[in-house]
Design a protein that fits this description.
By secondary structure, this protein is of the alpha/beta class. It folds into two domains: 3-43; 47-217, Rossmann fold, CATH 3.40.50. It is 49% helix and 20% strand. The chain has seven helices and seven strands, in the order ααβαβαβαβαβαββ. Strands 3-2-1-4-5-7-6 form a seven-stranded mixed β-sheet, with helices on both faces. α6 links the parallel β4 and β5. α2 (55-68) runs parallel beside α3. The relative contact order is 0.12.
């Protein structure tokens, strides 16, 4: 084999290796990010208070996003970022991004620090704003929503977002717990409202610590 053809053959081999190398690097990068997120969650485990969700609820949201391949997520009520980390972590698997809204400046700043610690900043658009106003203004579309803000505004948040939710997308609401087949207080009227919508199917996830309503959009 001439030196010219030998060089050409070696070049072809090098090119053929590039996709495999790229996949390996990408896999390593994902594993590294996964490890960083897990470490951050574990280190902060005893500090997730101030209206944050439980790890069990976070895992439920993570699984819901990954299984349904949701990519355009909105969170109403960031607090200090526990739920947003679980949501954004799931979105790293689907290629998506999260918009999260918090009205309290101190909690907002703590959340940003927590996102940096977890290595998820690029997957989260954290906004300091009044969700009563911003939710109406956001153009969407969204395919996943997690609402965990002022409970007396649950129905209004849903009403403002529902037209911007894609068919097949879901709207999840925290702190919707069912006890002995009954809903109490503000929860009862809200669940009745959700179950009365002809284009949504609502189920209640009762096995978690606080209860989550999952409303999936069936049609426009």
């Amino acid at each position: 084999m001439s030196s010219r053809f030998r060089i050409y053959a070696l070049a072809l081999c090098a090119v053929s290796l590039l996709p495999a190398q790229a996949v390996a690097q990408q896999t390593t990068g994902r594993q590294s990010l996964d490890d960083r997120v897990r470490k951050s969650l574990q280190e902060q485990e005893s500090r997730w208070h101030d209206m944050n969700i439980s790890a069990r609820d976070g895992q439920f949201l993570y699984d819901l996003i990954v299984q349904n391949k949701y990519t355009r997520a909105l969170e109403i009520g960031t607090s200090t970022g526990h739920s947003a980390i679980w949501i954004a972590w799931a979105l790293t698997k689907t290629g998506g991004k999260l918009i999260t809204i918090e009205i309290d400046e101190e909690r907002h700043q703590l959340a940003i620090e927590n996102f940096k610690r977890a290595g998820l900043t690029e997957f989260i658009d954290a906004r300091l704003a009044d969700a009563h106003e911003l939710v109406r203004e956001l153009p969407g579309p969204f395919d996943f929503v997690f609402s965990d803000a002022d409970k007396d505004w649950n129905k209004q948040y849903f009403t403002d977002i529902a037209p911007k939710l894609t068919v097949g997308g879901c709207y999840t609401t925290h702190n919707i717990s069912e006890r002995h087949g009954e809903f109490r207080g503000y929860t009862r009227g809200y669940v009745e409202f959700l179950r009365g919508l002809p284009n949504f199917e609502t189920t209640i996830e009762n096995t978690r610590s606080s209860g989550i309503a999952v409303s999936t959009k069936q049609s426009k």
